[in-house]
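Figure S4 source data
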Amino acid sequence: LRGSKAKRIVVLLHSQVFPYTEAAMADLVELAAQDSRILLCLFDVAILKTPAASDKLLPFTRVSHQVASCELPRDYRRGVVRQYPVGNPVGLPFLAELVADQTFLGPLQTTGGDRTLGVEDFAYRQLNYMNLEHFTQIPAHNLIAEGPRPEFDGKTVFVGYTAYRGWTFKHREATFANTPWQADGDDVKAGLPIVYLHGFATANLLAKAWLHPSSPMVTALHTLILALLGYFIWRLSAGLASLIFLGGWCGVLLIHALLFA
């Protein structure tokens, strides 16, 4: 990858897969020191900030401007990831702060934190999961055998672990997370690798394709139109209105069953 013309090389380091105290981590830091395109993303930041574990961060102090947090704050571990953190007022910056200029992001929404991750308050964008087919996964052994690819030129390349490793008391983030393609509260193993989520989010940020809340006027207008439509149908025929109501709910349940079968 260092021989390619990639704009950035983002390396996600899940601590349960790549222990931060291993000698190989110093070699990775050395590579990052030699190549400013390399960004190192850490997990379990809340644990790393404690005095007992602070030595695990020592290897990264040399390239502190290329180190970010890749954790995804949410209400509970099985929750669907809908908010992508783009600003952390204290502590290690989130990945978005290194790949997208804050002035480019514009006004941010702010929410309460995730205490399990040690994040008290953070700015976020609503994550948009469109264009799933636009991401290509290349196994590491293929890349090693074939060398740099021209499609990397000018792009942000993510290097991540795509097999499943669950969370533990020691490691607060699994290598997978739930997305809208899974039911809320579903087993995290049925979700997507976290490296994919960061890929979606980076595409969102760079293309300004995140989800925007609708205007209160638009919401009020939709509500008024539906209320008037329901009123006139009910006046026309109570039986027809009941049939439409029941048929609509059956359609919703059918679509839900097909999506999450």
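Figure S5 source data
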Amino acid sequence: AVVGRTARDQVGELVFRVYLLSAVSAAVAVLFVAKLVLCVADDERTGAVGAIIAAVLLALSVTFFRRATTGDVHAPTAALVAASLYLAVRVGQRAGAPTILALAFLAGLGAAGLDGSYRLLLGPPLLVLYLWRLRHGARSVLAAPALVVLGALGLLAYAPVRLDRAEGAPARGVEVSKTLYERAQRYLVRIERDVGVLALVAAALGVWALMRVRKKALAGLLLFVLTGDLLRAVWMPPVGVIDPQSGAPFLLVTSVLVGSGL
């Protein structure tokens, strides 16, 4: 009884729940990375191998592991990005109304989230995707704005106070570089240390493989998120370019590209 009461009290602690949310969100992000690789694979067997490699690469990267063990908004945002990328691919494959509306609801959650990266990285491509589906007769797209608003309001009702750090007040141990070149250099060095040069080369081959099999729209979507994360880190200090928390969307997409290139 004492053990049960102690466990119940611990789960009730806000700090514990926030850290638990980060861990669960990171696991969800890894899951959807694997599902995304499987979704775009032409062969089921090679797709399964690629999905495993992509999931392991993401899960074992230092930056992503830190997201999973830090009580902040980064891991939940990564989970939303991964899930939205998967659903966006399904919508692009002409999935039905449930998938279209589910993606809209996730977009609402991400748009109202405490981390602005979702709006910057996925807002424009999702808008283009929905306009394309509407042009091709998907009437359920007309209900998507209501689901976006519902998701945004639901998140704001649950978390009405912003918990992220104030601008100009980086956390302890975070260096703020002063030049664009220094930010970009340190960002790319951190990514290279996370996954290695071979993984980056494999990701480039993944882009080529997607283009070769006429999946240019998917390659464009992934490259948009990839370059958007880099530009956001370089142009919007002190967005953790030297902070160990930065680079997760870049790593997420890199893992997908590595798995897709196999």
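Confidence is low (pLDDT under 50) at residues 1-10, 160-174, 238-242. The first helix runs from residue 2 to 12.
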